[in-house]
Amino acid sequence: MLSQIEGSQAVAAAVARCRPEVIPAYPISPQTHIVEALAEKVAAGTLAPCEYLTVESEFGAMSVAIGACAAGARTYTATASQGLLFMAEALFNASGLGLPIVMTVANRAIGAPINIWNDQSDTMSQRESGWLQLYAQDNQQAVDLHVLAFRLAEQLSLPVMVCVDGFVLTHAVERVDLPEVEQVDRYLPPFVPRQVLDPANPVAIGAMVGPEAFTEVRYLAHLRTLQAVQQIPVLSAELGTVLGRSVPGLVDAYRTEDAETVVVALGSVVGTLKDTVDALRAEGEPVGVLGLTTYRPFPLDALRSALRGARRVVVLERAFALGVGGIVTADLRPAVDVPLWTVVAGLGGRPVTVRALRGVFADAAAGRLEPLTFLDLDTDRVATELPGGSRS
Amino acid sequence: MFSVRIHGRGGQGVVTAAELLAVAAFVEERYAQAFPSFGSERTGAPVAAFCRVDDRPIRSHEPVVAPDAILVADPTVMHQVDVLAGLRPDGYLLVNSAGSAPDFAQPGARLTLVPATELAMQHIGRPLPNAVLLGAFAALTGVVRLDSVCAAIRERFPARIAERNIAAATAAWHNVHNGLKVASDA
């Protein structure tokens, strides 16, 4: 059903159609509209049977999600920023226990300094938590990726984070084609857990594993996680057939075929990059953009193949590692044998404009980019804080 | 692509106005994207909201930097905020005011005044200028039709409140339409 709808409402509608049975929730901007909308659906009885729990913290939310999922319930929650960090210990338990929880992260910066606006520092900080991570470029993808996420999670018995840029997408009112209930039901079978905590048939989940087997457990978890690289293209193609539209999978290559300069990026900035690429192509510039939908596991082969013809690659990062540089860049390095630059952009809600992106393409082509560039950095302002600067 | 920035204060329905405009475009089977300026949602504080309308899917998520039209729900924010920032040459400036044009004259902008608060008080009984401004916007720019604005209002508000807002928006449409007609006849 075509709707002109706020991103959060659209995500909530898509999640509701996936029939979650337990939703533990704790509010945090910019995620709150999603769990509010789901609370209304549960209270109105339109999302039955579903137990909605207001918990005391994000740690509580993920702990309840672990228990509910281990008891065999399809489980969903959402968070952002500091809330995701407060879940960190439980995140690793959810993935280690193989619990197919689906969670939306409305991407937001991490403090200090406190900042409620959008970047991707929160999910990037949890990239090794063992959760699969899918990044939405727009609210249509946000909707479709949630449906995909439940199927993927339950098929592999692994948790999935759907990463949706906070405010930029969650608070944007865009045209979204919401999947029909029958379409979702056709695509997503009822949840059949691999093992269930059941008093009638007791099992232990989460037993201690010593040095004699821990490596093997982690190795098998690695192999299971890598299965997602094969499964995601299959599942996205199948969902595309059910919905009658293209659903993103591992990567989204746009005008990269004969591109000399390709920018790699994740999330809502990819759309802005596509507009930039179209404008530059009209001027004869051989440029393209590669959107990374699946970040965990890292689809190295798909990236290598999409970047094969590029003469230079720029990774536009909405987060970075202090004292190191680009996070995605480091992952990508084995996939490319051409110059690779990092541009850190849009931190803490700093807008990423077409104008600035045009500058990135131009500087890359002219060999003017620094290996690590901070887009739109106010150099005069930072100079006053640096040694020898004129502090006022 | 036609882009709009709406200025006002928290509580005036500025964000809702941008959403209503997006829904009005959607009713016309066009593409639209509305979003607020984030983080300053306090009653009485200056707020801004944005809307893009296009015949093609809108992929960009950059802020509206060069609007084709600026709507001002409360002219007192013009002392605090540079409401004209980025306005395209010959862009529209629609201000809620019962005053006279010279008070708000800005070089390069096509200024139109509409007494939105007065019309809201008359038809809605509360000083809510947002739907009224959209009626005026439809008459001024033709980007969306008045009946699409009315359909958006009906979708968003309960029936009784919707009808009052529609009456106010329609009055604003006539106010601006007649003003333009007088100007072109003169």
Written account of the structure:
The complex is a heterodimer of chains A (392) and B (186). Chain A has helices at residues 7-17, 32-43, 58-70, 81-86, 88-96, 121-125, 139-156, 181-187, 214-243, 269-282, 300-306, 327-332, 354-365, 379-383; strands at 2-6, 22-25, 51-54, 76-79, 102-107, 132-135, 160-165, 173-177, 251-254, 261-265, 287-292, 294-296, 312-317, 340-344, 372-374. Chain A is an alpha/beta fold and 392 residues long. Chain A has 2 domains: 2-243, Thiamin diphosphate (ThDP)-binding fold, Pyr/PP domains (Rossmann fold), CATH 3.40.50.970; 251-380, Rossmann fold. In chain A, the strands form 4 sheets. In chain A, strands 9-11-10-13-14-15 form a 6-stranded mixed β-sheet, with helices on both faces. In chain A, strands 4-5-7-6-12 form a 5-stranded mixed β-sheet, with helices on both faces. A two-stranded antiparallel sheet of chain A has the order 1-8. In chain A, strand 10, helix 10 and strand 11 form a beta-alpha-beta unit. Chain B has one domain (2-185): Pyruvate-ferredoxin Oxidoreductase, domain 3, CATH 3.40.920. The longest helix of chain B has 27 residues, at 159-185. Chain B is globular, with a radius of gyration of 15 Å. Classes of the chains: A alpha/beta (392), B alpha/beta (186).
